[in-house]
Amino acid sequence: MLTRRRRSPHFSLFTLLLTLSAFAVTAFVPRGARLPPFQTTPTLRRSKHGALFLSTQLDGNSTMVAVPEEQGKKKKKVVVVGAGWGGLSATYELAKRSDEYEVTLLEAGPSVGGLVAGWKTKGGKSIEAGVHGFWYCYRNIFHLVENELRLSPFTDWTPSAQYSPNGLEVTSP
Length: 173
Hints:
It comes from Nannochloropsis salina CCMP1776. It is a single chain. By secondary structure, the chain is α+β, with helices and mostly antiparallel strands. It has one domain (about 1-170). The protein has 3 helices and 10 strands; from the N terminus they run βαββββαβββαββ. The chain has helices at about 10-25, 85-95, 140-150, and strands at about 1-5, 45, 50-60, 60-65, 75-80, 100-105, 120, 125, 160-165, 165-170. The protein has a 6-stranded mixed β-sheet with strand order 1-2-3-4-5-6, covered by helices on one side. Strands 7-8 form a two-stranded antiparallel ribbon. α1 (about 10-25) packs across α2 (about 85-95) and α1 packs across α3. The longest helix has 15 residues, at about 10-25. Residues about 1-20, about 20-30 and about 35-40 have low confidence and may be disordered.
């Protein structure tokens, strides 16, 4: 049984950093991959056996980061399961605190990114698993991209199309 842990005063900052860090990870995501907006609040929980979990949720899928508390060791060993949006951002944040945590990231798929990882068809066309957005109201993401990554958050318009079993449905722009 998991019980909720009372939030610390620094939890809001950690939440913001965890959310923003996902775009810092995009430097390691394969070219052409697009990340969706990560609009969720991580929940810190503790099991009855003392294990600490950071749970994030996006589109109904959950990423759990287990942080076992080992006595007598300075660093806590952390295993992040899943290299999707939440897993990559959790790994990035924990890796920045390498003096406290030894982080291992596990991914079952052939590439990182979870639902945001695209792929190429045999004909070389880019395919994505779902609809993603990068909206102006996500000021924190733009700030991270511009200031920490020192990148422009914008690229040139690229043509795209949406296909269904009935054929071509829409093209953009």
